[in-house]
Amino acid sequence: MNVFRNIALPILAVLIAMTPLSSKAGTYQVDFSETGSLEKIFDSGLRPHRQLSFEKYKCEVRNVDIQVFLPDGKILPRMAFDWGEFFVYQNDLLGSAEFRTESVSIDDAKQLLLPFLKLINDSSQEKLESMLQDASQDPLGFQPNFSAGVNGVPRWGVFVRKSFDKNRPLKIGVKIDWKRERTERAFRETVIEPPPGYENISMEPPPIQSQAQPSTTATQSSSVSTQQPRSTVAPQPTPSPTVTRPAPSGFPIVPVAVLAAVILGILLFVLRRKSK
Predict the structure, then answer these.
(1) Alpha carbon distance 34, 19 (integer Å)
(2) Is 163 domain-assigned?
(3) For the residues of 113-173, what is the DSSP string, one character each?
């Protein structure tokens, strides 16, 4: 027992301590300094999957920590995103890239946005302060009317969305748009495939848990739909419940007792006659 306590328990503690590390977002540096393309996304280590219902021109990533390099030498501040989406043309060039964070508090939103505003170098900080003040007074009803950006090649900027979470009422978005020539904006006729050199990597969307495991509500609805339709006849009075009584024994107690008494009487009569 002491051996288990001295060896196994410390190992278990180390495994428990390491568990949160495996769930952290992966960190990636995406180099869009030359152009935005699907190949650049794969070169960074990201492995996007095709977006359901938009498999011909959209792919996405989840739970990633990204830093983006732009053509003008600017490096966007590194940020953890809950979701990212890429619009891909037929020639694997990107039309846009958009990222959004999970829900954040007002203070965290300000700290995350200020480094972007320093790169944008405009008077948008006052507008941000005004919106954050509105959000602090009414975190569920405020208007998320903040956005700021740079009109370059590509265009990029930050914006805010409402999360409808009272404690973390904001989501931060970053979007990059490329001005593509008409000849570069051809749409695909088939689903997005990995770029050359990455053909062995699957871009299939992950399985949807709700399809694999139907919800209780859906199961109940299915059960109800298979029931027989209700009758239009007026309902009959419900009969009183039947009281279950113990089943009578199959052994004939009374007849046997009578027969035994008769036999006993005959024996006594015979014994008396022999004793005379």
Answers:
(1) 38
(2) yes
(3) HHHHHHHHTSSHHHHHHHHHHHHHH-TTT-----EEEE-SSSEEEEEEEE---SSS-EEEE
Q: Is residue 240 part of a domain?
A: no
Using the 8-state DSSP alphabet, how is residue 250 labeled?
S
* Contact residues for 197 (Cβ-Cβ < 8 A; gap 6+): 39, 42
Sequence-distant (6+) residues with CB within 8 A of 49 are: 59, 60, 61, 202, 203, 204, 205, 206
Global pTM? 0.66
Q: What's the rounded Cα separation, in Å, for the pair 54 and 215?
A: 25
Q: Is residue 126 part of a domain?
A: yes
Which amino acid is located at 258 in the chain?
A: V
Q: Point out which residues pair with 158 in neighbouring strands.
A: 148, 174
The C-alpha atoms of residue 276 and residue 271 are separated, in whole angstroms, by 9
Whole-number Å distance between alpha carbons of 67 and 44: 10
Strand ranges (E), the chain: 26-31, 49-50, 58-69, 79-88, 94-100, 147-150, 155-162, 170-177
Residue range of the domain that includes 136: 21-205
Give the span between the Cα atoms of 81 and 46, in whole angstroms.
13
The domain total for the chain is: 1
pLDDT tens column, 165-211: 999 999 999 999 999 999 999 999 999 999 999 999 999 998 874 34
136: in domain: yes
Specify burial of residue 49 (Cβ count, 10 A radius: 0-12, 13-18, 19+): middle
